[in-house]
Amino acid sequence: MLIIPAIDLKDGRCVRLFQGEMDKETIYFDDPVEAAQHWVAEGATFIHIVDLNGAVEGQPVHTKEIAAICRQTGLSVELGGGLRSIEAVEAALSLGVTRVVIGTAAYDNAEFLRALCKKFPGKIVVGIDARQGNVAVKGWKETTAMDAVELAKRCEQDGAARIIYTDISRDGTSGGVNVEETLKIARTVKIPIIASGGVATLEDIRNLLPLEKEGVEAVILGRALYAGAVSLKDAIQAGR
8, 51, 171, 204: which is the annotated catalytic residue? Predict the structure, then answer.
């Protein structure tokens, strides 16, 4: 199972938020490139970047930092946050990003998602964030009436290459991954699933390993790595 460290960018720095609240942040690195290089040294090959300001403003903000990470680290980069037009996605891919994550826009506009998947096959990942099983959008500020499983099915039909499933109630809390809901999504669709939110210990990674045969190919780690609760080297080893 692929272990993917997360880098969340806010105001030019690498931070972690508590349950997505923009005013509940902890700064871990002043220089995002340094953060990426740190994870490379620990064995990372893939990295998940969220442009938090971009997510709030609806357009990418940290293009300079993202370009530098792509150029200087050799990492494969998955990028989300504010990618709400074909032009924004095209620009992100031109920076050297491997694939992009679409969140709110995938929920709001199925036509837009279909157009993206057609234009950039294999490059479009849908981030489904759920609160008690229902899809949350707009930086988690709004919880919709749509079931996460239904959105996953629709996104697969529309051509999404993968789905990142995050249980918001677990994110940043170190409460453990929501294995049941992740499994439910994985069994609903045939495209690969990336688990996210709540990894606190190596045990949480081990609990996910049986889901690999169900299509859960990777897990994103954030706070547990930054707080030192889990070392990336150990996590990669556990994933193997």
Answer: 8
pTM of the model: 0.93
The predicted-structure confidence for 191-238, as pLDDT tens digits, reads as follows: 999 999 888 999 999 999 999 999 999 999 998 999 999 999 999 999
Q: How many CA atoms lie within 13 A of 31 on its CB side?
A: 7
Distance CA 127, CA 113 (A): 12
Residue 206 to residue 177: CA distance in whole angstroms: 11
**108 three-state secondary structure:** helix
Among the listed residues 11, 30, 51, 129, the single catalytic one is: 129
8 annotated active-site? yes
23 in catalytic set: no
Q: Residue 19 pLDDT more than 80? A: no
Contact at 8 Å (CB) between 175 and 201? no
Cα–Cα dist 32/53, whole Å: 14
Give the N- to C-terminal CA distance of the chain in Å, as an integer.
6
